[in-house]
């Protein structure tokens, strides 16, 4: 559904290379249009707790077709989606998850990255997206 | 812990190639010595239900350091480990999961494959193991 | 509730010593009369998958106030408690869990052991029980 | 993986003694480098709800290799890791969990304590850490 394994592995490879360039240790997950895990890589000695978070970020980004950080803005106390993280077996609503579009701007999957600051996580995820979207 | 990402990706690549050669569509998971997912690939159009099974096979093989099919023999009705599958958040005890050893015969991780018959699943998993163990 | 920490630690110590004598690597769990974990020890290099099983064995033995293997006899296909393992977040119904009684024959807790054959598991659990019941 | 049972039991013993000195009733959990429970003790009449919290604190400290209270600072509303607690089957991000290092400053496990104020919990956990790190 949507993204192919070949595309997903290309995203993983690009994100992995970006993480090496930045000197950070990441968990990197790619899900397809059905929010099913398609490819995954855990860098040596990356945080144990980031494994689950990277997968949840990818799923969250596809569940709502927006970067996870955007959902987080809406999910603050008093916000319209407060505590949405309780749904779907647990969401992650801080940055590091980004939808992946095809050339027709249709969502074909998403990538989730976890292992450093949320800024680093997002930057590595974006590198994965760019490898597919050709930006 | 144990297997490196480089080794895990080599196992995935070899298992993937074996699946292509056999004309089957597989989910392929590799866990490290701590039973943590290290690398994963889901071939296009592989069964959706096999995603979770492949990961559970890899974990099961590492949890008890034996091929999943061996556990299944002990877990039959009347057998000593009947219904062991209810532990650890769900085990899979039919073939397709195999521990991965280093040159010193120490378990460094495991591979789990699901998507076809259990014989096919096991054969593809073994191809992944062989890529690392150099057999 | 029921067993004290002092008693639970005595049971763990005796079971641990028995396991050392037998040359096996065990996970050993003791729960109180409320089926709450009271003491636990995981021997170095014991099977990862046995951690959860040892705790589930102890809980199962206290849930029904009988050795886990007795429940297993009733839980076979066609038996009166077939698939009871689906309850309570997962039961384990093969040997290795034993209730612990006080001098008035009242159940004060239970011990669960996992890491070898079910016969070994049961023998190590019995050593833990004996340390408290003074047999 | 990492911490030995002997070390874990030494940490439990020291933390238990500290709790007795302070007149508080604690649940004390030690996990290894793989975040697997290695030793546990529940003091008589300690809060029932603290059992799970103590284990989750130990796991959380190892998942991210930092004291749980540090994660909590980042997980406040508006913070970069807001609601991270929904990952990994439930995290605890207030004080009482501390990583345990070896002499080479490598994380070999973690301790989690729950049963009193978070300040007391942290103090008892620190006593457990000190017993191993020899401070």
TrEMBL record, chains A, B, C, D:
Transmembrane segments: none
A Pfam family annotated for this UniProt entry: HbpS-like
InterPro entries assigned to the protein according to its UniProt record, in alphabetical order: GlcG_carb_metab_protein (IPR052517), PduO/GlcC-like (IPR005624), PduO/GlcC-like_sf (IPR038084)
Name the record gives this protein: Heme-binding protein
Protein's organism: Hymenobacter properus
UniProt lineage: Bacteria, Pseudomonadati, Bacteroidota, Cytophagia, Cytophagales
